[in-house]
Amino acid sequence: MILASLEVLADRLGHEFDDPELLRRALAHRSWVAESPGTASNERLEFLGDAVLGWVVADLVYRRFGELPEGSLTDLRKSVVNANALADVARALGLGEFLSLGRGEDAGGGRDKPSILSDAFEAVLGAVYLDGGAEAARALVERLVGPRLDDAVDRLDRLDHKSGLQELAARLELGAPVYEVTSSGPDHAKEFEAVVTVGDEAVGRGVGRSKKSAEQAAAAAAWARLAVD
Question: Cα separation of 91 and 103, whole Å?
């Protein structure tokens, strides 16, 4: 990682860092730190960014969609604050190319792994918050995540992917979906992966910060596959 390359990312973020070291640290995955003694990972910044993201998105949802009940507001927030959605935001920024990864993680496709990308985006947001304050962080979230809220509100009735998959499986006479969930990572940053089986075949996989969100992601993938088969 050369510091000059971070100027490209900062330009994409629309934020000029007073302390570029914060951005460098936000891109340092623990696998790289394990091979580079004396350096710090992005996990603390990720923790901060996660909290900032939750606050800003909740505020945006509340102010933009005042007619929606609490349950729908929660569903709308979850639709954009999950590992898969945040990984999409990170990909749009080209975040993967700037990551500092260990050799094994890099060789294993870590630059496009949803969990790594979503964590890195949250860490970058934490860096922007520390460097530019709450308004800079809010502006970043509103620009990058805000449009996704507008798209998601039009499909609120389809956000419960598990129910949709169950109905589709019943119509296809394939039996009820069965979910198997595994977890990995430390307690403060645990990641869940769900695999859903329909008709004795694994038809969808998903990851998330909770068992429920991983199952929903797996159900969405399975629905998309079965609906076109």
Answer: 21
Q: Which domain holds residue 202?
A: 161-228
* pTM (2 d.p.): 0.69
User: Annotated catalytic, 160?
Assistant: no
**199-203 long-range contacts, CB within 8 A, separation 24+:** 199/169, 199/172, 199/174, 199/175
The active-site residue, picked from 50, 75, 193, 215, is 50
Instruction: Considering the candidates 46, 105, 119, 122, report the single residue annotated as catalytic.
Output: 122
Give the domain CATH number at 217: 3.30.160.20
* Active site annotation includes 50: yes
Which residue, of 109, 131, 155, is where some domain finishes? 155
Across the chain, which has 229 residues, the per-10-residue mean pLDDT values are 72 94 95 89 96 95 79 83 90 94 92 93 98 97 90 66 85 91 84 91 85 82 79
